[in-house]
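Q: What residues go here?
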């Protein structure tokens, strides 16, 4: 039988045991993310399961998108049997290039996933350049 091991998973588990899985403002917990380009839109998905949408802050400043969220600590008044889900403050910053239009970002939160849609700026979209032949005037660039 073949066993698949991941040494980094063991390091992560040990660091959670030592430092705890509770994020603070000074030391927030990271949120997993996927990002890709879909035609003329850059898409980002961030996992935030169990977070109330009202507890998510999304800010854009100087091409930096900041996502902050908070999952409050458990308060059952009794001792926990298991507490493996991270609690506290989550934070992620994305530095975007000038080729994206940060003024028209849209965000949707569904089933614990925050999806950002960021359109590609018009100036960054590919354009076709006409080529003249001979000694005619230079061709104009068409958008």
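A:
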């Amino acid at each position: 039988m073949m066993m698949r091991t991941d040494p980094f998973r063991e390091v992560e588990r040990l660091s959670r045991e030592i430092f705890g899985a509770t994020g603070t403002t000074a030391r927030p917990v990271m949120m997993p993310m996927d990002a890709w380009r879909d035609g003329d839109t850059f898409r980002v998905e961030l996992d935030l399961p169990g977070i109330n949408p009202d507890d998510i802050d999304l800010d854009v400043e100087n091409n930096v998108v900041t996502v902050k969220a908070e999952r409050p600590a458990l308060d059952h008044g009794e001792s926990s049997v298991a507490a493996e889900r991270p609690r506290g403050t989550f934070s992620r910053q994305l530095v975007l290039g000038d080729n994206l239009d940060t003024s028209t970002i849209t965000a949707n939160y569904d089933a614990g996933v925050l999806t950002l849609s960021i359109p590609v700026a018009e100036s960054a979209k590919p354009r076709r350049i006409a080529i003249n032949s001979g000694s005619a005037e230079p061709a104009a660039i068409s958008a």
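A: Context that may help when evaluating the design: The chain has a mean pLDDT of 79. The CA atoms of residues 37 and 114 lie 16 Å apart.
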